[in-house]
Amino acid sequence: MGAYILRRLVMVVPVLLGVTLLVFSIAKLTPGDPVHLMLGFTATPQQVALLRSELHLDDPIPVQYARFLWGVLHGDLGVSFRTQFPVLGEILDRLPNTLQLTVAATAVAAVMGISIGVVAAQNKGGFLDGLVMVTALAGLSIPTFWLAILLILLFGVHLHWVSPVGGDGLKNLILPVFCLAVWPTAVLARLTRANVLEIMSEDYVRTARAKGLLERAVMIRHVLRNVWIPLVTYLGLLFADLLGGAVFIENVFARPGIGRYIVGAIINRDFPQVQGTVVFTATGYVLLNLIVDVLYGVIDPRISVASN
Amino acid sequence: MSSASSKRLPETPATLRVRLRLPASLNRQSPLFATLDSLSRNRLAMVGLACLLLMILISILAPWIAPYSPTHINYDEVLMAPTWAHPFGTDDLGRDILSRVIWGGRESLRTGYLAVMIGLGGGIVVGVISGYLGGKVDATIQRIVEVFLAFPSILLLLSIVAALGPGLVTVMIAIGFSSIPAYSRLVRGSVIATKSLDYVTAAKLIGVKDVWIMVRHILPNIIAPIMIYGTLSLGGAIMLTAGLSYIGLGAQPPSPEWGAMLNYGRQYLQDGWWMSAFPGLAVFITVLSINLFGDGLQEAMNPKTRS
After folding, report:
1. Quick check: B217 pLDDT over 80?
2. Chain B neighbors of A143, CB-CB under 8 A
3. Within a 10 A sphere around the Cβ of B115, how many other Cβ atoms?
4. Does pTM surpass 0.80?
5. Which domains are assigned to chain B?
6. Where in chain A are the domains?
């Protein structure tokens, strides 16, 4: 197990190097001079030259990259062009909002998706199964930002249950969480149904039934215990889905999270903010997947044994 | 045997060919026949295909079927709720929402399609080179692809939009490029399975150049499943295009692109719900049609789930 974790840790290094190299290259290839973006076009050549040397922009490109990487390793993601504040601080200020949203959406999606999937599998071919599958497909097809608008229209504008312009408090978290959870709930429902059906056709389930176990016992002891394994794999991917969703949902509900921050950064062409958010989020994602992989090895000993 | 399946038995190859419009030469035993036969029996998939074709047709015929110009401003009919004259209502400038939704389909479908084509094109080039050449070239390309696949593609997409600046063309390029790593993996797998087949070995033995083998012998044999996968990704690309336009990174006003219309309409949520409702509905129906058809196609292509 130790060797497995160590090998997975080593694999994280090239990925993070690749991400930093990618965002650094994109920043360098972007047309427009960052110094002019910071000082405006009325700056004198002396001011431009001074800032350029302060930011080490006259150094050779590999040196600039090494400096950037060194900064990242020490928690320095640069300073925003616009606000002049350190990017890491700005991200950490917004992180709790995004985490609140994504953790709540994960919980909702896990409970709803898995329950719906199990119910659908138990009624395979029936009306309930058909209804669940069509609803899940609709859930995968509905643009979440549009669903959000419709719900704001109903609950915010017409019924006045929530604020139509967003806001703090648990009440104003319900709609964003629901909208963000729609896609993963649909994915989990379909995934759970397929897994339950596959496991139900296994020999050991037939044996359990043949020895006279109650259907509920078969389900809990033999089917559901094995359903967890493929679902845990999706947990890592779920974060990518939720992150993508948060970019849209935070903008619709005007929630000051990381998704809204990066969109604002792109519109304002604040590249340190974009660069910092991409590196920070990618690192979080890679580390989360590392945890999921280790967890996967713990709940399914076949994985770590096979990789050893 | 159930009554439903016994009712299907009398169907002859001839009637099937008429129903599917398949060529008489198509072998009934072939996997393609089985796939198309199963697909044609799937009612939901056929509804999806019909809706998708209808959406494409409406977009193509937009100049002839849209009742008004999408940019025609009429201050006498500002923020009108749906009526017979304007079935989807009008916006704050009196522009007809139905006409804008019809014209918007052109922008959204075209952007989604071209984005998928960029992804497919790039994925095919990278995947074929990596899979066919193998060895160090393959190992190097795969390590790079692994880096790209190891973090969410939305981050790569947003980085590209940040570099090129917001706009519909940028969104198209960003969606296309950010999907190249995933497509290339799929293509590489197919190439590796194909390159060990006898006809490829025979071509090598008679001295055919590698580039020619890749283009003439490998590519035509892997292209069908990859094109299908591309079609299935179209829904995601259309949704992403609309989403990015909605948050201001894609099409900009006065473009009638569906996402841009939604973005514009959110300022008038209280007085003109129709400005947001109908463009979103168009995205939903298009993506749902593609997903319905895609689900049916995947089911039909898998011998285990084929009906």
Report:
1. yes
2. 239, 242-243, 280, 283-284, 287
3. 26
4. yes
5. 61-301 (1.10.3720.10)
6. 2-73, 96-268
